[in-house]
Amino acid sequence: MSPAAALFDRVVVDPAGDTRGVVDALDSMGEAGMRSVLMLAAEGSAFDRDAVGTAIEACPAEVVGGLFPGIIADGRRRDRGVVLLGARARWDVRMFPPPTGAECAPADRVDEDDAAGAYLMLVDGLSPHVYHWLIRAYDIAGGERAVVGGGAGSLSLEAGPSLFGDAGLLGGRGQLVGLPEALEVNVRHGWHRMAGPFLVTGATANTIHSLDYRPAFEVYREVIESASEHDFGSEPFFDIAKHFPLGKEQLDTEVLVRDPVRNEDGSLVCVGEVPEFSMVYVLTGDRDSLVHSARRVGRDAGSAVPGDGVALVFDCVSRALFLGDAFQQELDAIAEGLGPGRRLMGALTLGEVASSPMGPLSFHNKTTVLATAGGGEGAA
Questions:
Q1: Of 195, 189, 328, which Cα lies nearest the Cα of 259?
Q2: What's the pTM value of the predicted model, to 2 decimals?
Q3: Total domain count for the chain?
């Protein structure tokens, strides 16, 4: 059996995402002997959450997954509908609650008896605790086994239940799923430096207060308005910011993208933590650079996917907002890179989780992360 077939043995797509369709799809997984199910649902789906939660509790399979701004089913974006990926293997599932008291302590170091070949990690993308959960996941997985996933939640950026588990839909959680097969992970974003670097001289979690000892928004606004025709005085913040993310300098990889989502009293609130005293750039990109990076992701992974295999993609929803109608070109580019016959399934995410060849586990923004079964030494 090929590695991809061992990871996902059954694929069901319910394009409507209504209650009857989702419940029937879950029932079909149990009837087919699936012991584990990854359920990716678009937030525009019309299913009754309580009824689906009851179906999850009754399902003999272990159900994990989340509610996302959108899903990707066979290479097409859907704003409603559900993708279910089933496996005969039983996955090892850990649920991380918000850290309090003793839970703030590091997890045990790598468990040598843990048979997982790689890990899927889903998080509440709007939680302030993502960085804490990444640390716990790295403590468990170590640097040799790949970790891949993304942030669940609503495009409205309003907090709410977003992860599927034994008790239905839960909020404010992180989810780490041990998979039996190794994964190859490919990560690219296509953004490039426009200005900087700037020293982050004041920051708290995901909020940048100052750059080079000046109010962060003042610096950001000055850079963008001097290099473009945009005007923060007359345009909504995010309509401009989606074109100009920030990039945090990394030691071993291309810059780690951070997505500013609002100006809060002169501070820049981002999706994802920005440490104090790190170096950041203002980035820019266009349709061609983003689509080209997506094609490279597909090509890098293509050799690892059998002709009938599934490639799992976590693509930032803000890329879709930036590209608009051209977003389908990005998905087509990934599929082209993978080669004919491969099935591209995944989610539009609020941040992307991926390990790197050097081991670190990062929470990305505005980035494409593609996972395929059969990777060798951890991430690639």
A1: 189
A2: 0.90
A3: 2
- Give how far Cα 173 sits from Cα of 24, 167, 255, 270, Å: 27, 13, 27, 19
pLDDT tens-digit map of 313-349: 999 999 999 999 999 999 999 999 888 878 899 999 9
- Cβ-based neighbours of 190, under 8 Å, separated by 6 or more: 285, 289, 290, 291, 292, 293, 294
Nearest to 64 by CA among 28, 39, 29, 96: 39
Helix (H, G, I), strand (E, B) or coil at 91: coil
First to last CA, the chain: 23
Residue 183 within any structural domain of the chain? yes
Question: Which amino acid, residue 277?
Answer: F
What's the token pair of residue 313?
Answer: 């993609």
Residues 256, 180 share a domain: no
21 shares a domain with 91: yes
How far is 75 from 158, CA to CA, in rounded Å? 28
Locus of tokens 């069901």: 12
What's the rounded Cα separation, in Å, for the pair 251 and 267?
26
C-alpha 185/C-alpha 76 separation (Å) is 21
DSSP 315-347: EEHHHHHHHGGGHHHHHHHHHHHH-TT-EEEEE
Same domain, yes or no: 120 and 17: yes
Q: What does the alpha-carbon distance between residue 340 and residue 253 come to, in Å, rounded to a whole number?
A: 30
Report yes or no on 8 lying in a domain.
yes
Q: What tens digit of pLDDT does each residue of 235-294 get?
A: 999 999 999 999 998 876 679 999 999 999 999 999 888 999 999 999 999 999 999 999
